[in-house]
Each structure stands twice: as C-alpha cells, then as structure tokens.
User: Which sequence fits this backbone?
C-alpha cells in the first residue's frame, strides 16, 4: 500500500479528496431521500428498496426474481420479502418460469407502471428545472464525470 507523501501538492490533493467525500455523502443522502419520497408516492407503505426493485421492473419489464436481485445487489432474503410486499400491494405479479418451476418471474402491474411512470416524470421535471441554466457543454462534461463516478461509487459506502 502506498503512503501519502507530505508535499504541498499532496496536502492539496488530500483536501480535495475530503471535499469529494463530503459531497458524496450529501449525494447519497439526497438519493436515499428521493427514493423514499418516490416509494411513498407509489404506495404509502412501500420501502425505498421496494421502489428500486419495482422501478427496475417497470424500466426493463418482466424479470426472474433471482436475476433481478443479483443485478440490483439485493440479498435473497430481502428480495423475497420485498417481492411479497410488492405482491401484497398489488404492484407486481409473481409467476413460475415454464422452463424452471422453481424460478419466479416478476411482472409489474399496470397500476405500478402508471405510478412509477408518474413518479419518474415528476423527478425528471425536477431535474430539468435544476439543470435548466446549464449549457449543453456543461451537461456533457457533467454526464462524463457521472460516467466515471461508477468506479468511485464502488470504492465508497453510502455511509461515508
């Protein structure tokens, strides 16, 4: 493991990294708040992780429960609990895979598609309002930085 040199440039780098950590913490808190608000807008008892699962189903259509859980990095027991709740709230239906009776196929209900679509439209409107004054070039730079953000997100936890 490399040690941190003590030159002025390195102190500046360390300070800049600390600023990034602060902004990442703020970003994660805001994302969690948005997921919570979005979940409640779909169903008053829906948890943010349930919204995340449902949103993925609405975006991509029918999916195997296990595959979706892996894609979203959701533990099997959490996925199972959330699927039961989503089914109870009549936001998805659960069927059996004709090729593998053990596998569960999840399909969002038309009500879920309608609600998630409305929530996404509201969130998109808010994003447009915030970014309205940015130039197309600034938006492209921001988009590129967000693309690089994936590696950063893997390196830190939401609790940072």
Assistant:
């Amino acid at each position: 493991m490399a040690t941190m040199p003590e030159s002025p440039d390195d102190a500046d780098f360390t300070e800049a990294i600390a600023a990034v950590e602060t902004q990442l913490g703020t970003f994660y808190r805001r994302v969690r708040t948005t997921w919570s608000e979005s979940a409640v807008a779909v169903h008053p008892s829906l948890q943010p992780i349930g919204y995340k699962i449902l949103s993925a189903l609405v975006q991509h259509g029918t999916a195997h429960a296990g595959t979706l859980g892996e894609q979203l990095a959701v533990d099997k027991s959490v996925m199972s609990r959330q699927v039961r709740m989503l089914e109870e709230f009549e936001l998805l239906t659960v069927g059996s895979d004709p090729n593998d009776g053990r596998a569960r196929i999840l399909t969002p209900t038309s009500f879920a598609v309608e609600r998630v679509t409305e929530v996404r439209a509201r969130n998109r409107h808010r994003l447009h309002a915030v970014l309205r004054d940015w130039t197309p070039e600034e938006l492209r730079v921001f988009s590129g930085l967000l693309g690089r953000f994936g590696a950063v997100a893997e390196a830190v936890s939401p609790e940072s």
